[in-house]
Amino acid sequence: MFAEPGGSWRLVAVGPVLCLVVLIGDLFFGAGVHWLALTVCAALLAGLVALQVAAARQHASVTLTDTDLRCGTETLALAEIEEILPAGDPFAADLEPWETARALGELSGVPKRRTGIGLRLRDGGIVRAWARDGDGLRAALERAVPGAAADEGSGR
Hints:
Blueprint: E1 2-4, H1 14-29, H2 35-59, E2 62-64, E3 68-71, E4 74-77, E5 81-84, E6 102-103, E7 115-121, E8 126-131, H3 134-144
Parallel strand pairs: 6-8
Antiparallel strand pairs: 1-2, 2-3, 3-4, 5-7, 7-8
């Protein structure tokens, strides 16, 4: 119903492509080709970026299915969601209670460049789901959990 992978494997190719551009420049300008240095740099860049992408795909990905919401490494059953809280006002002096609640996943908060979405659980707890496309996740959650969408004025 909704999915964000967290990171793109295409980024791994950026470093080696840049090293290829430098190699072509070396060949074109006749300054001598630095085969070993360019090969090592390409491998190091690809390896480091691959680690970052793998971590992002594990810790910053979001998946919504018919039964579960997974943010990062934490999975929440949709049956546990009582209410999808209204979006916070970015210009308000005071934060809504859900804006300081625990974020789903292992991370200490909502990842950078992600939008938090407040969820009231059936046990009374409040958590924050998150996604890069916060409006898209909110709309998908409202379709997946009928009757859980809050009125704009009911932030409780």
